[in-house]
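Researcher: Next sequence.
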Amino acid sequence: MSLKDGDFVKIEYTAWRAADKQIVYTTDEKKAKESGVYYENSKYGPQLVVIGKSGIIKGLYETLKGMNVSELKKVELEPTQTFGERDNNLVRVMPIADFRARNMEPYPGMQLDLDGVIATVKSVNSGRVMVDANHPLAGEKLIYEVKVVSKVEKEEDKVKELADSFSLRPKAIKIEGKNVMVEIGAEVEKNSDYFVNKSTFVNNLLRDMEGVEKVEVREEYTREKKDKKEEKKE
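Model: Next structure:
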């Protein structure tokens, strides 16, 4: 059966600029390294998306809807279907002193948070810095090749896949009616990224899984074992 809104699916895809056929992103790690678009902190391999719910671009959503598992499709998408047209109002010039006051030395390609929006430094000349808050691919026609790898059917698997997409790796999952309990083991580091990921996961779970009204996250912590040499010193 073809995909529809609300379906949990795992996809692989590669995106090229239509103008120069340069790869701008891919879920294939080997291809990313060969094309010079490898990002160390990115997750490669099949990616989880929820049709009509998760934050995928409009054109990719329209392409996936109606596809079948194992189907491969290649489409060319207009800027209005991807990251929008370029907006010259989002390009501004700032004095370099504004950066140095924050102990920052700007350089072309540098990314920064500008009033809550990620902006890119385009040039640095004579004490003036040009920054662009447009998406780097705004105004570009893009070619996407997308494959539907699998469809996630079981409710427990949907929770697990969603949790794994935020690096939570649940130790246990229990679903009782409209309530979901997720247990996170001690092996998952509870750093600042973890707490952001946990919050986003819970919000997405409540948004993406119809019928779920309550989510409980149980966390396991263990005392850090001391090295034997440190114990002797004490």
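Model: Residues 192-208 form the longest helix (17 residues). The chain has three domains: 1-86+136-153, 88-132, 154-226.
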